[in-house]
Amino acid sequence: MHLFFSFLYGFFPKTNTIMNTTLSSIKSLTFTLLLLLIAQVIVAQQIKVSPQRASIKAGENIEISYSVENMGNGQFIPPKLDNFAVVSGPNQYQSMQWINGKSSSILRYSYTLRPTKTGKLTLKGAGFKTRKKTINAPSIYITVSGKIPQSPNQAIMPKNGNTNDPRLKADTNVVQMPDLFYRIEVDTNRVYLGQQATVAYSLYTVNYITNYSSVTTPNLQGFWVQDISPSRITPTTLTIGNKVYQKYVIKKYALFPQRTGELEIDPMELEVSVRQIARNSRRSFFRHYNTINKKLKCEGRKLAVYPLPDKGKPNNFNGTIGNFKINVRPDRTSCKVNEGITLNVGIIGNGNLKLIESLNLDLPDNFEVYDPTVSENIYEQNNVVMGTKSFEYLLVPKEEGEYTIPSIPFTYYNPATERYETKKSKPLKLTIYPSNETVSTPKKEKAIEDIMGIKTDSTSLHSTSRSKLPLVLFGLLYLAPFLALPLLISRKRKEDLVKSDVVGLKRKQALSVAQKKLTTAEALMSQNKKKDFYNEIIHTIWGYLEDRVNIPASELSKDNISKVLMAKNVKEAKCNKLIETIQYCEMAIFAPVKDADNLQQTYQDTMQVIADIEEDLTS
User: Fold this and answer.
1) What are the CA-CA distances from residue 175 to residues 91, 179, 186, 245 (Å)?
2) DSSP assignment of 317-372, as one string?
3) I need a labelling partner for 18 at 20 to 30 A (CA). Which of 36, 277, 293, 593 fits?
4) Which domain CATH number covers 519?
5) 92 - beta bridge partners?
6) Residue 278 banded pLDDT, cuts 50, 70, 90
7) Cβ–Cβ < 8 Å for 405, 305
8) Cβ-count burial of 70 within 10 angstroms (0-12 exposed, 13-18 middle, 19+ buried)?
9) pLDDT tens digits for 444-483?
């Protein structure tokens, strides 16, 4: 390249400054293009890690992945796992695409790890080696808080997935797993109220599976549930202990808890057809296989749900949890009086989008606002529910002028940053022009003639008097809808009464149901099962309020309970007593309190406060 430009400089006279300048520009442009081409090749061949940073509690698992893009054949270099125990992995996934004659490939290696110490840990040393070069992966930074729990009966893999590691036999934490087992896997053991937890019902087998089907489905009470099961179940290969398993994710759910306490993740039964080598043919050259049908049932799991912190909670917080942003867009910024402007308010991000309600718009008084049209585009990506929820408002201005729609705030709790955050849209300016439409009304006489066709001459009066029967029939047909209207109204009222009986029946049965649940709490108290007792007390109160005052499960918060009960003439002191009982039980479950052994007093306080509230509601 340098010789080529030297030849050009020698060929043209050096006195020609224009040509020299042109050649210099061409040389600079050529080198820039070469640098961009090299940079593009470097970007195309790289290793991506997920996540880059994470914060977890001690005892929780974390899933990490390394994506090798467009590297061809080579060998993956595992990371240094000095401070981690391998629960599963490395699991390998490969995909290739051809677009417009160009190929691209992705190799993904994933691990499920559990930290063995707390503090700020670093995963480094991973890479991918080909015959020509080695590319190093970025480091992953993980912060582990809390205290490492002691769990000697938990099965883990040796580090780096090496089943020949001599520590495998000496490590007391490694348990030999059966050839076929079925279990519930949760990405976390503790969440905030409304925060997503991902649950997978996973089947592990050493042998070949010919068929499987679900016998039961879990109830998952206390959760808002979104099914994120894969449309096509593809097994993954992983090593646990000294066995190689095929893992099938039968069902996967995104769970959003609607109340605090310990919530039960129900088991699910499964029927499996397993192909195994027949015993008589194991030593012979020709092997025979038998298909065995088995029923499997996984053990239930419990998820600890914590209340959201009161510190820093804004007044406009409505219980939304996740990470979002707000986008406000009108279809136009100017129109005439009585014309419509469509205002689209979109909430974008990850979290429980389905439970987000329409926002309150602070509009000028001379705007008429209609109920919004709601649309959703919700999907799952990497086990996280995300998407967009849009509200389309129709705004009709009644007066001309220049107007400003103030910024619309949207508040949510971000569990990643552990604080309340508010995103605001930009203010919108609207210009309303006067309407130039005039309303013309036809003359009264002309309208009567056009509609009725009545003539006032004596001949027409004489002719109508001759044929009264058709007029009577016409009149009866005209009056028939009005005569049937009372019957329709009566029927509609009966249907409304039948529908309202469901709520009324729940109200009547609320007290008896609460008393039955308190009987269960009394039995737990006699067995000195403290945690289960306080958990049952909270569930009894939630269930009573949900049935008695018809509060949906999604709105069961301490602030909302006080507002609803006081609106129904329940005294403030009784509401405060109820909230104190709920808070005490939550503290007894999640954080030990000094007098947590006083179960009898808590039981009596709960019965008394329910009786007091019932008294005010029925008076």
Assistant:
1) 20, 13, 20, 15
2) --S-BEEEEEEEEES-SEEETT--EEEEEEEEEEE-GGGPPPPPP---TTEEEPPP
3) 36
4) 1.20.120
5) 109
6) low
7) no
8) middle
9) 344 334 444 444 444 444 444 444 556 666 666 666 666 6
Q: Is residue 164 situated within a structural domain?
A: yes
Number of domains in the chain: 5
128-149 pLDDT, tens per residue? 888 778 888 899 999 998 887 6
The angle at the Cα of 576, spanning 573 to 580, to the nearest 5 degrees, equals: 140
d(CA 92, CA 110): 7
Identify the burial level of 601 via C-beta atoms within 10 angstroms of its C-beta, where 0-12 means exposed, 13-18 middle and 19 or more buried.
exposed
DSSP 143: E
pTM flag (> 0.70): no
Residues 6+ apart with CB under 8 A from 449: none
The CA distance from 48 to 69, in Å, is: 8
pLDDT of residue 440: 41
In 3D, which of 251, 262, 166 has the Cα closest to residue 223?
A: 262
* Residue 46 phi, psi dihedral angles, 5° rounding: -155, 175
Q: Are 354 and 256 in contact (CB under 8 A)?
A: no
Is the domain of 534 the same as that of 560?
A: yes
Tokens describing residue 543: 């269930």
Residue 541 lies in a domain: yes
CATH number where 216 lies: 2.60.40
CATH number of residue 406's parent domain: 2.60.40.740
**DSSP 3-state assignment of 385?**
strand
Q: Which of 95, 86, 73, 126 is nearest to 238 (CA)?
A: 86
**DSSP assignment, residue 157?**
B
* Cα–Cα distance, 458 to 449 (Å, whole number): 16
Give CA 356 to chain center in angstroms.
11
Which residue type does 119 have? G
Close Cβ partners of 144 (under 8 Å, ≥ 6 residues apart): 56, 57, 58, 115, 117, 118, 119, 121
Mean pLDDT of 341-356: 90
Are 106 and 94 in contact by the 8 Å Cβ rule? The answer is yes
State the pairing for strand pair 180-186/197-205.
antiparallel
End-to-end CA gap in the chain: 97
By residue count, the chain amounts to 619
Question: Beta partners for 378?
Answer: 387
Phi and psi at residue 178, in whole multiples of 5°? -70, 170
Contact (Cβ atoms closer than 8 angstroms) between residue 347 and residue 326: yes
What tokens does 18 get?
Answer: 């224009």
Full 3-state SS string of 462-504:
HHHHHCHHHHHHHHHHHHHHHHHHHHHHHHHHHHHHHHHHHHH
Domain span at residue 565? 497-618
> Is residue 27 assigned to a domain?
yes
Digit-coded pLDDT (tens) for 574-591: 888 888 888 788 777 765
CB contact at 8 A, 74 and 128? yes
